[in-house]
Amino acid sequence: MAAISINNITKMYGGESPVKALQNINFEVNHGELFGLIGPDGAGKTSLFRILATLLLPDKGSASIENLDVVNHYREIRNILSYMPGKFSLYQDLTIKENLEFFAGLFGTTLDANYEFIKDIYVQIEPFKNRRAGQLSGGMKQKLALCCSLIHKPSILLLDEPTTGVDPVSRKEFWEMLRTLRNQNITTLVSTPYMDEANMCDRIALIQNGQIMSINTPSGILDQFPYRLFAIKSNNNYHLLQKLKDNSEIRSCYIFGEYLHITFQDNRPIEIHGTEMMEIKPGIEDCFIELMDNGSNNN
Amino acid sequence: MRQFFNFVKKEVYHITRDKRTLFILLAMPIIQLLLFGYAITSDIKDVRFSVLDESGSTASRQLVEKFAGNKYFIHYSDLHSYDDIEREFHKGKTKLVIVIPSDFANELQHTGTARVQLLADASDASEASIVAGYGQLIISDFQQDLSKNETIPYRIHIEQKMLYNPQLISSYNFVPGIIGLVLMLICAIMTSISIVREKEEGTMEVLLVSPIKPVYIVLAKAVPYLAIAFVNILSILFISHFLMDVPIVGNIFLILFLGILFIISALSLGLLISSIVDTQRVAMIISAVGLLVPTLLLSGLIYPIENMPWLLRAISNIIPAKWFISAVKDVMLKGMGFEAIAFECGILILMAVVLLTISIKQFKNRL
Amino acid sequence: MEAIIIKDLTKKFGSFTAVDHISFEVGQGEIFGFLGANGAGKTTAMRMLCGLLEPTSGQGTVAGYDIYKQRDLVKQNIGYMSQKFSLYEDLTIKENMRLFGGIYGMSDKEIKMKGEQVIQDLSLQNEQNALVESLPLGIKQKVSFAVSTFHTPKIVFLDEPTGGVDPIARRIFWEMIYEAADRGITAFVTTHYMDEAEYCNRISIMVDGKIEALDTPSNLRKQFGADNLEEVFYTLARKAKRGDD
């Protein structure tokens, strides 16, 4: 049985002209899996997290966590779940130790009792345990937040955009910590707007406008990219882009850093003057764009 | 229960870490006490007075001129009947009415002893007593003028009457008033802000998702402020009694009991506010406009309730501070026992129970 | 003429050297990425370039004006946009334009003409009188950028401009930056996100107050033998001794 299962969840916002924040969301997360929910701001990630965290009621559909329904059995769920909201900032005026002890006490346990469980992460910040959270660096705050989330040995961890606003070094360390959590048999659902983080997950769901566009392993998603993809570059990419946009042989053309990524009509590459072109493997961002384009064509 | 104390401990950290706010919370009552006690009793000048001269004699006119000639007084109006007195006071311009009875000149001439009545508007009790005191001085001055050429001194009996606040207790009134104000401020505003802060900073979501019962969150927030508020009652009573010589006639424990009842209803108000607003700014505005201003204006702290129009009088009934202040006055200044304030206690308990029930019900389990 | 020239720029706060002798030049119409971990001194350096903070030592000109003596002229000739704040949410697009145009001393006529031009370019005819808060993030960002370049500054400072937007909106946004650069506006981009850095012509990476690397993204990858900028950044930033606060 799945650790998290979501069936046809729909959530609307607003009174007179309601906006669909989530439309018929379906997926399952397996035990011990590191599952990524990847999509831009406003895609509906936070709404879905709040429904799973028993904080919000869905308009339609159902969801369960460890076979407990999120609406009817919210009390039991709150004992085994840990939820870190996007803007979660700990108590800035409490020290590391006080924060941890408070969150442990909230779940009727203590820091000492569960020390072993969080040890791997906690040792990195333990030297500063008497420093107030407000004076910690972004990376340390994040580690503390993760410790606070794990202090009651949850079996499910919901992390809503934990890496937003954190520098690349801390981000990398954070993802490595999440990967080690899999050994402790914790199921982790994590959301992020950053496509490059997808590769750290076991499986990912790409979400946009309240709809899941695709669910697969990161490599599975890449394999599904339906076209041959080329990177192309000239001494003025901006002018090149303007030119290619008007070219009917070109199916799609987007800037990707120093290059433009293009696909051709009927997968037939053509020669383009004054450029350097090579065939490349798509990335998650290419797939995301492709799925978005497809969605808008179908609608 | 351990969860609860764990939570209380956290709240105590929050409060003690913020030294500046803590200092304000503890020092504010003392500052207010001094402000109300000393600063607000300002000098008087240009006191308007009215005259009801039933005697219409030379002597009575001389007396009125004596008043009018004084630099502190201004002859404002002449009245013609006793009914005018009430009307004139209600217009609020005149502070003192001098009533000279019809037999004034006659008595003075024949018996050497006459009566004059001074009526003061005691809704501002301290001002009224100063005005009346000046009035007495002027009359005794007048008496001496008359007596200068006579062998037997004239004597004018002054009958002084304080209208609207006969016992003139408001010179001490501000003490119960300040207790009420301070408790309302600390309990209602601080608790509502402290809960709303958790909403703003996103920690509330984490608390809600934890197994802790909402009622614990709410009560744990209230406990430390209850303690601070209690310290404030003690410091106010101590300073006002030992430094400002305010009498504490009644039972001190009864006063503290009233204090706790009032704290609970004020805390409940704070919790209610926090359950309906989402930002500290809004909580602050609602507390200030919705609680502080009514407490200041409608509780009898500044303006006597008896003088208010019926609508405001009716509204004042739903202000917890009104009941608290009136009960504390009865106990502290008049030495009355529990029987005398049972009704006020009943109302405060009722208010606390209703407000607390609503705010715990309102406190949502979800977002 | 170079848009930014700084030499040995240093800022000390007491005994702490936030920015330590940094030197670089940014050309007109260049898209320059300014990277660094939290606390590396990025924000301090940027404040000096914007004329908000006086340097302790070193020289510099921004948009041709001296960053010591002509700070008001520097401010007049730069634009600023960040992910966090750029537009007043409770004003409409037009009102925001009028406000910022006014701040930079544009005439009413100029504001009106330029405003209509922007509305047309971004095809926002239907949204021009809508409150900013009601707009989707992608449109908000486009408008933010248009407003920050409304007074045709010589340089526009962009602070994590595309964080959190969907990949297509992000590309449309970068097209706008490229287009502005094509018109000669220099873009100075600070960001945490390496995929954002890839769009820059050249990038610099700051560690502990010093610039440790400065080149084109592809040269940096070659120089460090890395597959992507993330690795380059990681290699450099890991050496940082200073905590990021």
Please provide a written account of the structure.
The complex is a heterotrimer of chains A (about 300), B (about 375) and C (about 240). Chain A has about 300 residues and is α/β, with parallel strands linked by helices. Chain A has helices spanning about 45-50, 75-80, 95-105, 115-125, 140-150, 170-180, 220-225, 235-245, 285-299, and strands at about 5-15, 20-30, 35-40, 60-65, 70, 80-85, 155-160, 185-190, 205-210, 210-215, 230-235, 250-255, 260-265, 275-280. In chain A, helix 3 (about 95-105) packs parallel to helix 5 (about 140-150), helix 4 runs antiparallel to helix 5 (about 140-150) and helix 5 packs parallel to helix 6. The model of chain A has no long low-confidence stretch (mean pLDDT about 90). Chain C has one domain (about 1-185, about 200-225): 3-Layer(aba) Sandwich (Rossmann fold), CATH 3.40.50. Chain C has helices spanning about 40-50, 70-75, 95-105, 110-120, 135-150, 165-180, 195, 215-225, 230-235; strands at about 1-15, 15-25, 30-35, 55-60, 65, 80, 155-160, 185-190, 200-205, 210-215. Chain C is about 35% helix and about 25% strand. With about 240 residues, chain C is an alpha/beta fold. The two termini of chain C are about 35 Å apart. Classes of the chains: A alpha/beta (about 300), B alpha/beta (about 375), C alpha/beta (about 240). Chains in contact: A-B, A-C. Chains A and C meet through helix 6, helix 8, strand 12 and helix 9 of A and helix 6 and helix 9 of C. Chain B: This is ABC-2 type transport system permease protein. Chain B: Belongs to the ABC-2 integral membrane protein family. Chain B: It is found in: Cell membrane. Chain B: InterPro entries: ABC-2_transporter_component, ABC2_TM, ABC2_TM_bact-type.
The oligomerization state is heterotrimer
Radius of gyration of chain B: 27 Å
Low-confidence stretches of chain B: none
Radius of gyration of chain A: 22 Å
SS content category of chain A: alpha/beta
Measure the end-to-end span of chain B. 25 Å
- In which range does the helix fraction of chain B lie? 55-70%
Mean pLDDT of chain A: 91
| Number of helical segments with 4 or more residues of chain A | 9
Give the number of domains of chain B: 2
